[in-house]
Design brief:
By secondary structure, the chain is mainly α. The protein is 79% helix and 0% strand. It has 4 helices and no strands.
Length: 140
């Protein structure tokens, strides 16, 4: 994939992430066991991704034209967390591919930081999914 194509794919995926994280945070924030943690994590990630879109537009030298769309949330908290974990893994792979194509040192550093953040999100999502699974298995 060429640089511009890859950046367009990443921008599209990041816009979708913002929309889905926002929808899922509103859908599941009332869960008694992990709702508050989920809300904090999802809204934090969505905010970071909105900021990241601005940085990506500088790298691509084009506007991103972000529009938030109405997308239904996942069917359960476990499904939501699994979906976001899979998307975070995909994001790491996409950003690694982008890193290989970039020559600009400033852009490379930004992408390295982004990869580190995505790995952190993946770890946080995995930990939250484990916590949710364990708490749902406990008798009430």
């Amino acid at each position: 994939m060429r640089l511009k194509e890859l950046i367009r794919v990443i921008i599209t995926e990041e816009m979708l992430d913002v929309t889905v994280y926002t929808a899922d945070s509103k859908l599941y924030n009332s869960d008694e066991k992990i709702g508050e943690k989920l809300w904090d994590l999802y809204t934090s990630i969505a905010h970071d991704k909105k900021t990241r879109l601005k940085a990506l537009s500088k790298i691509s030298k084009e506007g991103v034209g972000f529009r938030q769309r109405k997308i239904p949330g996942a069917c359960s908290i476990q499904a939501s967390l699994r979906i976001h974990e899979d998307r975070a893994k995909k994001r790491v792979l996409l950003y690694r591919a982008l890193l290989k194509l970039l020559d600009n040192l400033e852009s490379r550093e930004l992408i390295k930081e982004t990869i580190t953040k995505e790995k952190g999100y993946l770890a946080a999502l995995t930990a939250l999914r484990t916590e949710q699974k364990e708490s749902s298995e406990l008798p009430e």
